[in-house]
Amino acid sequence: MSTPDSIRGLRSAMTLAEKASLMSGANFWNTKPVPRLGIPSIMLTDGPHGLRKQGGAADHLGLNDSLPATCFPPAVALATSWDASLLARVGAALGSEAAAERVSVLLGPGLNIKRNPLAGRNFEYFSEDPLVAGRLAAALIRGIQSRGVAASAKHFAVNSQETHRMSIDEIVDERALHEIYLEGFRIAVAEGDPWTVMSSYNRVNGTYANENVSLLRDVLRTSWGFDGLVVTDWGGNNDRVAGLVAGNALEMPSTDGVTDRVIIAAVESGTIDESVLDDRVEEMLRLIERTAPSPDAPAADLDAHHDLAVEAAENSLVLLRNENGILPLAPESGRIAVIGDFAAVPRYQGSGSSLVNPTRAETALDALRASALDVIGYEPGFARRDRPSARRLRRALRLAARADRVLLFLGLDESAEAEAVDRTHMRLAANQLQLTRELIALNVPIVVVLAGGAPVELPFADEVDAILNSSLAGQGGGRAVVRVLTGQVNPSGKLAESYPLRYADVPSSATFGRTEATSEHRESIYVGYRYFDKAGVSVRYPFGHGLSYTTFAYSDLIVGPAAADITVTNTGEVAGSEVVQLYIEAPDAADERFRAIRELRGFAKVALRPGESKTVHIEYAEHAFDIYDPVSGAWRTIGGEYTVLAAASSRDIRLRASIRVEGQGDLDLASGLEHYRSGHVDRVTDDEFQTLLGRELPPATWQSNRPLTRDDIVAQTKGRGGFASVLYSVIDRSSDVLMLLGRPHAANNTRFALDLPFRSIARMSGGAVNDAMLDALLVMVNGRFWRGARQLFAAWRAHRRARLSE
Questions:
Q1: pLDDT in tens, 748-768
Q2: pTM above the 0.90 mark?
Q3: Is 565 known to be catalytic?
């Protein structure tokens, strides 16, 4: 084990050029070695829920195949288990597969807050609540790093949408920033000790996250004590020197040495002191030392990992509805019709950089046919990606008319959720809704099995008999679904995000993804259940909801200054597990105070045999009685009479007890801001939001009359005329064509190009494009096509000659 002194000694032996070389990649996935000093290259690769080590051509978005690996349930599903011990085991399996492939850094977990259900990457994130996100991410991190592989908590911070994600400015007030968007990361750092953190693409209140001194230095390192390395998201560097000063060490992927030379020039000119570079180099050397691969790392036990993937899925399935105990199904349930394309072609993971090539994939249809149930047939019922098919509809209805029960598999298809693309609505496909309506009209009992990485509107919810949310259940999800449907496994999952009745009920629905330059978080702290409960808005299913095949009774709530004890009894006839949720209501939170009605401050999962009772001990979260004071820049304990709630969901409160907390009086942080006091933040005005921020709002739209620069994104070429519009149309229409051809992954990856800053075209090209060529392209899109074309040709020839002479 190296010591700090030995790391400093190694750094002091390096030349300036060698130190700069460690600050960017050698290629898409590997860092540069320094052979003279025995410093090896290490590999970083994607892997929030499964190793994505590409064996051939590398790309960031999952376009090219990776080596087979276990596809565990993504974070959206793992979160509904509310089981930190399970996540630690999944993490250890991920770490062992990475170690076997000599991967040093696994790029995950993602723990951004689910601010809006349309965010295209919600499937990679845990929750709308920072406590759930932080605790579960910490457990996954501990598991990964127990195998000598670094985890990378991402995307730091406020990465709340995919639309224009590489340029968008997330405008958020300081209180919401710390209480909602940073708190999960703080918990993950405190409890998981990640060896790396990945900075996000976006700006935060005007400054790129990767250059944000407040976030990377003041908060992450000084306040939280993070001692690891900050790596950019791929292509997420803007100003290399500013990033270095803020605390970013490693830029990925390779920039063909361009930004290494920028660092050298900055040190030689005195723009930055060499000690700044030295600090980053030592962080890099420490990471290399921490993740030194073992030459005899054992092969991963993929069979055992598949069984773990099944177990993780079983613990993550959420029974949303079960009228008249229609579930579980038994052989005597009668004739079962299986309808829905997702039964045979499962949707078990998202798209983009987390796309895993699974070692195997079990389907629910195969598991049903192998079960003791009387399955009389299967019909897909609808075409994927919402194409009309009268023939499929007719065949499905004929099959259902012969059945005593219908298992209806619905969900979001592969084109609906992906990295770099946000959803445009919260509905299921029209052909799925039509099929559901016509099946309901047959008056045959219907059990719906939902697949997808985010909430959907469920207008039929009260007309079907049961709904099982499989979410995205990983490669073992098919078997897990059938084991729950047939009662071999008692469902124990609970929602980690609210299910609105309709998208319009979401406070950010009016603006999310619709602006160009900024994303305004006008709802402040009122995200998810904090909003719905404060404003009294009805929901389809509340945060924390989930049913079981047994029942649980809560009793004997005893509260202390740091923790609460609750006795839970299984009052049913089968064994089961209950997620006990501890909420705390602030004094007078419902009475025009700028506070949520109740906030989750602890949770625990307990397994019980029929008739068994256990006392559950739940410690309060660190800031259980605090708010963040933006004036002093610190957390403040607010004194008063609080209510501790033992609950089965945010709206299923079983027990209450009072506790007196000493602290300051309530801080008046919303003087004159009536909508923040009432919680009706869907009505916040410009003036109110500006008052909350303490500054004027920046422009929400792009300035269309100025020339485009390297820092602008390709999407800004739209509507400019000439070559600029041609460039936009080619990318836009190529994506549409690929979608029509049934290639949603390729279509979404093509659309990703629209959100690339022009500077990234050069830096992510692996040396194929240099800055001179990029500047010529900008001349072309700014209306001087032929002049730019001549410059481009000359720059290309010079670049080609230079590379041939190397």
A1: 778 888 999 999 888 778 778
A2: yes
A3: no
